[in-house]
Predict the structure.
Amino acid sequence: MAPRKIIIDTDPGQDDAVAILLALASPDEIEVLGITAVAGNVPLALTQKNARIVCELAGRTDMRVFAGCDAPISRKLVTAEHVHGKTGLDGPVLPDPVMALQDTHAVDFIIDTLRAEPPGTVTLCPLGPLTNIAVALERAPDIAGRIEEIVLMGGAYFEVGNITPTAEFNIYVDPDAAKIVFGCGAPITVMPLDVTHKALVTKPRNDAFRALDTPVGVTVAEMTDFFERFDKEKYGSDGAPLHDPCVTAYLIAPELFSGRHINVEIETVSDLTLGMTVADWWRVTDRAPNATFMGDLDADGFFTLLTDRIARL
Ligand code: BDR
Ligand code: CA
């Protein structure tokens, strides 16, 4: 089967970086058409730079990286340096990128690519706030029907929230964008905290990255070491959740995940629950299903896949 053509929309972020590395290590299954950066974990100037750093780490200086929106559609940007450090990629020492940023705006790249490729052949993989995707959908509504699938990391149901008691970070930062995306009609698969909080980088799993003894393997271990200290303290867990690689792992091995096709709405009004993904997991409403909301994963299978693929870089 031909590899799936994808655009990765991202705000790196150590876990975004691992998600990108997994995709770039898997050319038989995934063809990355381009990487679009958005403001999120850190401001856009850093996320677009970090995306290029990650491509260079993977030896992919040919990859095209586009800068997108520097702020949510109608709100002030909220960032997460408390988790990811001031660069967004704190942990390893990584050189500044040499490869150039593309001149085209990320939103134009998303629109142009979806219009140029045959309908139903391009998958969008958002790993950060959904601003770029929503702006593209608002500006070019015709692209919604051309999207093969949107596979995104965001939201939560049973795990409720990580940035507020009821909201997950990516959705909270730009709930207006999330509302547009969840209402766009394209097939959507969601990797919420319910799944990603099971993708815990325990010490043996991180040791396996380090034991690869390659520049990429050691860098992944160092990034995860940094990222972990916050979540371990917060959750008292054995390791930090590796959120965003769930998206790219799903493209390679969907059998690792299970979930339900349900209705998911986004709270955009209430101050108390802003950015909540109101997921009708128990199907107690007659609202039409609009997303496949994942709930479980085979964590050992996920880390075996990740380690095997990182070893290829
Ligand atoms: C999400 O927020 C970011 O901090 C991570 O990169 C991930 O995309 C988890 O809530
Ligand atoms: Ca992210």
About this structure: Residues 11, 13, 16, 41, 127-128, 244 surround calcium ion (ligand 2) (CB under 6 Å). DSSP finds twelve helices and twelve strands in the chain. Residues 215-235 form the longest helix (21 residues).
